[in-house]
């Protein structure tokens, strides 16, 4: 699934092309792409036709469009899944073989949803209550289906202190905590490995065993690496992730950990390793990112020994001859 830098790149591209435009036609080409929509393709089409796109927003790895005007708006949630793409094309351009949904705009452009694996899709949602949305900006309320997602490091509502406290309270591996979207959103496998490498932390270490200073360093690394990736359009390992113009990101060239098994660590020269973690791969340096050494076993308390009892053996006494006084008369 695309992570924060990739989704934000898509959001920015969409905002530049669709905000203020009206949807004049909708065509659903695969039923799985609207499986989350109550009422299916017909209901989705009816809800979108003739309405303007008021805004494009993101929380972590999740994307939605505000559809409607003034107070009569609702969120169109876009699940990119593993291979979803939101593309802006001209009407009449050749269709992609995995085109799933087409929305025609009033300027002649088309918003196309391409999804090879069909794990993603569109659905109309409702806004969460302001208290549940956890954002002070009422113009970009969260859809109800993602209201449980925590703010990401680029969200004005992001509270570094609260995130560090939440991490420190988790009795789980630190990488598992980084991937928990209810603690900090936007981080996936790629940027988790990159941030852990920068912080010299092994992903298998317990979050509650790390110092507050180390957790602060890690959150700063997460923010920095995702910011750098965003600046170059994200990370593209294959054609499954592209921006709205079909272009790939370039951060793959700057990766220090992810995908570098068998290559020398850029910091110390040790050979990078890969191990399984949560049905995915983790990449790390065995020298820079050591596992926490096991505590040596506490020796058992020495028992207080009782000094041995000294046994002295004596030779038996020689028999004494009876005297006459001892004999009975």
From TrEMBL:
Keyword line: DNA damage, DNA repair, DNA-binding, Glycosidase, Hydrolase, Lyase, Metal-binding, Multifunctional enzyme, Zinc, Zinc-finger
Disordered, as annotated region: 290-329
Domain Formamidopyrimidine-DNA glycosylase catalytic per the UniProt entry, residue ranges: 2-120
GO molecular function, one term: zinc ion binding
Cofactor(s) needed for function: Zn(2+)
Span of domain FPG-type: 256-290
Catalytic activity, EC: 3.2.2.23, 4.2.99.18
Residues that coordinate or bind DNA: 98, 117, 170
Subunit comment: Monomer.
Main function: Involved in base excision repair of DNA damaged by oxidation or by mutagenic agents. Acts as DNA glycosylase that recognizes and removes damaged bases. Has a preference for oxidized purines, such as 7,8-dihydro-8-oxoguanine (8-oxoG). Has AP (apurinic/apyrimidinic) lyase activity and introduces nicks in the DNA strand. Cleaves the DNA backbone by beta-delta elimination to generate a single-strand break at the site of the removed base with both 3'- and 5'-phosphates.
Protein name as catalogued: Formamidopyrimidine-DNA glycosylase
Organism of provenance: Gordonia rhizosphera NBRC 16068
Gene name tied to this protein: mutM
């Amino acid at each position: 699934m695309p992570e924060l830098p990739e989704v934000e790149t898509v959001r920015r591209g969409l905002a530049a092309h669709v905000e203020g435009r009206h949807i004049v036609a909708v065509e659903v080409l695969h039923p799985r792409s609207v499986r989350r929509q109550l009422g299916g393709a017909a209901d989705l089409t009816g809800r979108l036709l003739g309405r303007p796109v008021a805004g494009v927003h993101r929380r972590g790895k999740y994307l939605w469009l505000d559809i409607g005007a003034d107070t009569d708006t609702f969120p169109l949630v876009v699940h990119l899944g593993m291979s979803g793409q939101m593309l802006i094309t001209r009407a009449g351009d050749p269709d992609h073989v995995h085109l799933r949904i087409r929305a025609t705009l009033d300027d002649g452009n088309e918003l196309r949803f391409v999804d090879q694996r069909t794990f993603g899709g569109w659905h109309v949602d409702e806004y969460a209550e302001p208290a549940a949305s956890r954002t002070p900006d009422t113009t970009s309320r969260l859809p109800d289906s993602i209201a449980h997602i925590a703010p990401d490091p680029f969200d004005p509502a992001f509270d570094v202190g609260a995130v560090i406290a939440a991490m420190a309270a988790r009795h789980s591996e630190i990488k598992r905590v980084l991937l928990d979207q209810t603690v900090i959103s936007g981080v996936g496998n790629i940027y988790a490995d990159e941030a852990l490498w920068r912080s010299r932390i092994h992903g298998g270490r317990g979050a509650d065993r790390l110092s507050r200073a180390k957790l602060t360093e890690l959150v700063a690394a997460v923010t920095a690496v995702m910011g750098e990736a965003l600046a170059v359009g994200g990370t593209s390992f294959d054609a499954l992730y592209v921006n709205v113009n079909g272009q790939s990101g370039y951060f793959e060239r700057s990766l220090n950990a992810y995908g570098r098994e068998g290559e020398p660590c850029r910091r110390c020269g040790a050979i990078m390793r890969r191990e399984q973690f949560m049905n995915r791969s983790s990449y790390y340096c065995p020298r820079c990112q050591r596992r926490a050494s096991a505590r040596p076993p506490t020796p058992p308390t020495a028992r207080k020994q009782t000094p041995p009892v000294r046994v002295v053996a004596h030779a038996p006494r020689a028999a004494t001859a009876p005297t006459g006084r001892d004999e009975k008369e």
